Amino acid sequence: MNASARQLALALPHRTALAREDFLVAPSNAAAVAMIDRWPGWPSHVILLVGPGGSGKSHLVEVWRQMSGARRIAAGKLSPIDVPSLLETGALAIEDAPGERLDETALFHLLNLAGQQGARLLVTAAAHPASWGVALPDLASRLRAAPAVELGPPDDVLLRGVLVKLFADRQLAVDEPLVTFLLTRMPRSLDAARLLVAEIDRRALEERAEVTRNFAARVLATFTAPGLFGEED
After folding, report:
1. Has residue 20 been placed in a domain?
2. Which of 116, 132, 150 is the last residue of a domain?
3. Could you tell me how far CA 189 lies from the centroid of its own chain?
4. Each residue of 175-219: pLDDT tens digit?
5. Do 89 and 191 fall within a single domain?
6. According to the model, what pLDDT value does residue 127 have?
7. Rounded CA gap, 95 and 76, in Å?
8. Which residues of 98-150 form beta strands (DSSP E)?
9. Is there a single domain that holds both residue 124 and residue 217?
10. Are residues 143 and 168 in the same domain?
């Protein structure tokens, strides 16, 4: 492949599908999906979405944002001065709590203001608040009282469905044995599945290759070093 054709293959865009219909439901995430679907009839003005990296938290946040018009902010960027403006739309997603540096006063004020205004907060975290090391007693109490729904690590059923859908979205024809081959060898996260299929697509375009088991094995072999798969939510 000449240089200009190779550049074109690498530059082809692919839209990340983050709509509700793009989220596959499995036992590992069913409770969390059901809670998102209940909006705005939540049992509390704040909901905790708890799950490991790669379990689909960011996707569900985006689904909820499309439904609610919510703003979003990383937990580590909360500041008391920004509290009033963060609730302007009546909904806010606070991601990756507690973050590297949680401003506990800012989060406490946000919880209070949301309750006063009838706003909704969706807080995502890898672990329950009891493990965050919160020092402010009133904040710790509020967080303990907030309903929490969990996303477990993706099981085989979910990962298989995600792989099939990702290949179909990219119009890549693959067979069941190939999907099974990848499923038994890839890192166990939804983000890993997205990265792997994207790389297979990129390499197939670059090399003008058919996506066979041997081809996929060569691609997968380059993704075995630690850290190559970023664990996102």
Report:
1. no
2. 150
3. 10
4. 999 999 999 999 888 888 888 998 999 999 999 999 999 999 999
5. no
6. 95
7. 9
8. 120-125, 148-150
9. no
10. no
- Asked whether 48 and 111 are in contact (CB, 8 A), the reply is no
SS3 assignment, position 46: strand
Residue 146 contacts residue 123 (beta carbons within 8 Å): yes
pLDDT in the model for residue 179 = 93
The pLDDT of residue 21: 55
The count of residues in the chain is 233
Asked if residues 134 and 143 have their Cβ atoms less than 8 Å apart, the reply is yes
pLDDT of residue 58: 87
Sites in the chain below the pLDDT cut of 50: 1-18, 225-232
**Which residues does 65 contact at the CB level (< 8 Å), separation at least 6?**
72, 91, 93
Would you state the pLDDT for residue 12?
35
For the chain, report the end-to-end CA distance as a whole number of angstroms. 36
**Three-class secondary structure of residue 141 per DSSP:** helix
* 3-class DSSP assignment, residue 49: strand
The per-residue pLDDT for 52 is 86
Q: Does any domain span residue 170?
A: yes
CA–CA separation, 57 and 179 (whole Å)? 24
Question: Which CATH number goes with the domain that contains 177?
Answer: 1.10.8
Domain boundary among 97, 117, 150: 150
Question: Please, are residues 52 and 58 in contact by the beta-carbon 8 Å criterion?
Answer: no
Residue type, 182: L
